[in-house]
Design goal:
InterPro entries: AraC_lig (IPR032783), Homeodomain-like_sf (IPR009057), HTH_AraC (IPR018060). This is AraC family transcriptional regulator. With 317 residues, the protein is an alpha+beta fold. It contains eleven helices and twelve strands. It folds into two domains: 195 residues, Regulatory protein AraC (Jelly Rolls), CATH 2.60.120.280; 111 residues, Homeodomain-like (Arc Repressor Mutant, subunit A, Orthogonal Bundle).
């Protein structure tokens, strides 16, 4: 789990405080960033926005609950489950706007929004964020579009609320560096809480972690990706036959053991391309790829760019 979580890097973030007096409703539609909303006081509802003829019932949040959408999600946040909504960017924001947030934009302060209705007040703390290589990060696909952490599952988030409140009022130089590191702590902590809750039923690395034999294979791959792993060697790690591993691993993870090995190696290679000046030859050798040609072909296939194009694009982002 630590290997998976440590490989998820926040590259941009925006922190916000919402003070909302009912009635209010916010439509988070086509928002391409990840986001986290933590309910500090009051209550609100989450309505899933989809084209289903039988819409899902709204979900009530109480103080201490949080909703996390790692890749963004089409949701409505409301004071009344059947209330009307307005677009997120139509709220009366104060501070720097989140529109166009990317790794090239570094906010120098937090944002605030105050909605003056006549009903009960609700306070939320929010974060919008992007992960490095968010659209091609195969680990993120293991998480659902969104998940809710109840207060008893997210005591970690309650501990850091005072720090978030401090950052709301921080206008000093260096704000972005602190906010980004802080957001990474919050988001990774939330993802960890979700994993530990064992709620996932979608195929992927998180589901694989729940099976002891498959988890042994994942651990071996994560800890020593450079090893010359073969199906028989991985089967031995799991104390399974090759045929059983070949059948069970895709059932849990969604791909074969060797495909997963290559994806993990490519993920690490992408990290090195962006975060280090290590030569491409050195990266290829350190991760156990058989040939330069194999690496380049797989990298272009999974990332959509050549290694040199990838390094140039994300180093200048």
């Amino acid at each position: 789990m630590s290997n998976v979580l440590s490989s998820l890097k926040i590259e941009s973030t925006s922190i916000s405080r919402w003070t909302m007096s009912a009635p209010w409703g916010v439509d988070v539609h086509d928002f391409k960033l990840g986001y986290c909303l933590s309910l500090v006081s009051g209550q609100c509802w989450v309505r899933i926005k989809n084209n289903s003829p039988t819409p899902s019932p709204a979900i009530q949040l109480q103080a201490g609950d949080s909703i996390i959408a790692p890749r963004g999600a089409n949701l409505a946040i409301l004071s009344d489950p059947n209330g009307a909504t307005i677009p997120l960017d139509s709220l009366p924001w104060h501070g720097e706007t989140f529109q166009g947030l990317s790794s090239s934009i570094k906010p120098s302060s937090a944002m605030q929004v105050n909605w003056q209705g006549e009903g009960p007040e609700t306070q939320l703390l929010g974060m919008a964020f992007t992960f490095q290589d968010q659209h091609n990060n195969f680990l993120l696909s293991s998480f659902p579009e969104f998940f809710i952490l109840k207060q008893h599952e997210s005591s970690f988030l309650q501990l850091i609320h005072p720090a978030m409140q401090f950052l709301i009022h921080d206008h000093s130089p260096g704000y972005f560096a602190v906010a980004t590191q802080f957001s990474e702590l919050v988001i990774i902590g939330s993802l960890r809480a979700y994993i530990l809750s064992n709620k996932t039923d979608s195929v992927g690395v998180l589901k694989g972690m729940q099976d002891k034999s498959i988890a042994k294979v994942l651990t071996a791959i994560h800890q020593t990706p450079q090893h010359n792993w073969t199906l028989p060697l991985l089967a031995a790690e799991a104390n399974l036959s090759r045929s059983v591993l070949s059948r069970r691993f895709p059932e849990y993870v969604g791909v074969s053991p060797i495909d997963y090995l290559n994806r993990w190696r490519l993920h690490l290679a992408a990290e090195k391309l962006v975060n280090t000046k290590e030569s491409l030859d050195s990266i290829i050798k350190s991760l156990g790829f058989e040939t330069d040609r194999t690496f380049r072909r797989l990298f272009k296939q999974h990332k959509g760019l050549s290694p040199s194009q990838y390094r140039k694009q994300f180093n200048s982002a």
